[in-house]
Amino acid sequence: MSTPNKDIEQVEVRVKWDPSPHGEPANDLDIIAATYPADEPYGAPAYLVHFDSRSPDGTITLNRDSRTGQGFGFDEVMTIELDRLADRYGRVVVGVAIQQRDGHKTFGAIRSTAVEIGEGYTILTENDFSGVAWATAAVVGEFTRDGSGPWGFRAGVRGFDGAPDAFAAVMGSRAPEA
Asked: How far is 173 from 176, CA to CA, in rounded Å?
């Protein structure tokens, strides 16, 4: 799905879910951002940002990290400052992965999941993962630009079934769309 959004400067990626029922292992969803070089936007990522890392230049930060889904509102929040990202980067792919420490968990097994990507008060996309209930991870959107031009956004949820590490390695490897 394509959107006409251009010249995006700073976005927030927000994820929420309900805590596990009493006595069951905690559900832990993580936002992952992969940044790709402009000269090879579908190759290996230049770097990943997730719960245990940050971008080298501070343009992508995880502001809130939950391991349980407890609390009000969104449980995980990541800020991506596209307007500050160096010209050598041309693509940022954003995904959400479920930690698999306590057995195989899918989005369909976790209650009240939601993801939202917004710029200021404008919601660029929102989804509840119901279309990828079978998946353990999903790409939720990507930002691209040509050269040093404005950033554009492409919404869409693409599911993946596997470990978070495997997802991070392949989340942006699809062929470019026309």
From this structure: 9
Residue type, 119: E
* Predicted local confidence at residue 34, as pLDDT: 96
Q: What is the pLDDT of residues 132-165, one digit of tens each?
A: 999 999 999 999 998 778 999 999 999 999 888 8
List b or e across 123-161, with b for residues whose CB sees 16 or more CB atoms inside 10 angstroms.
ebbebebeebeebbbbbbbbbbbeeeeebbbbbbbbbbe
Within 10 angstroms of residue 18's Cβ, the number of other Cβ atoms is 14
Pairing mode, if any, of strands 10-16 and 29-37? unpaired
**Mean pLDDT, to the nearest integer, of 78-93?**
95
- Cβ neighbourhood burial of 8 (10 Å; 0-12, 13-18, 19+): buried
Q: Would you state the structure tokens that stand for residue 59, as one six-digit string?
A: 């343009």
CA dist., res. 27 & res. 66, Å (int): 9
What is the DSSP secondary structure assignment for residue 167, as one 8-state letter?
H
Three-class secondary structure of residue 19 per DSSP: coil
